[in-house]
Amino acid sequence: VDTIVMGDAGSTWLVLAASLIAxxxxxxxxxxxxxxxxxxDTTAWxxxxxxxxxxxxxxxxxxxxxxxxxxVSGNAVDAAQAGPAVVTVWMAVLxxxxxxxxxxxxxxxxxxxxxxxxxxxxxxLRAFTRRTAQVITSYQQVQGRIAARLAExxxxxxxxxxxxxxxxxxxxxxxxxxxxxxxxxxxxxxxxRSVAQA
Length: 198
Prior knowledge:
Blueprint: H1 2-5, H2 11-57, H3 65-80, H4 82-106, H5 108-155, H6 157-163, H7 166-173, H8 177-197
Helix pairs in contact: 2-3, 3-5, 4-5, 5-8
């Protein structure tokens, strides 16, 4: 930058800087495309496999129709995020691993202190994961029951309209909405507690 401002021949550095910026932008574009393509392909594969499994299992299944629709439509997308998440985690692990090697070269006590802190963080993450899994499972079960009742209502929409029981049906479908709210609030409390512990 100083060379360009002073009017010297700085075209080489300008081209090099522009090239590095272009490579950075291109890498971000490829990363974004690859992530979306991976999630889309994995979602399609998961949905296909889940539907084939359900058809092979036959009518004797333990899930309600609405719960199955929720799992196939929404939850498959969430599960498909695992691939890009694993890549992101490994890319995030590389710089700290290199730092740990350099800390060991500088002083073994620095590396020991870092590893002790890492052990504490691992304990907090383990507790967070356990609590979060319980809360999310409960949330999804309630959500599945609501979706099952909604699917039943949609299947019998003409009967409901003819009988004039639309308001009763709304109450029946949304009966567990307060419990869904409670599970959502509990998940936020678990997240807040984990952040405070961290």
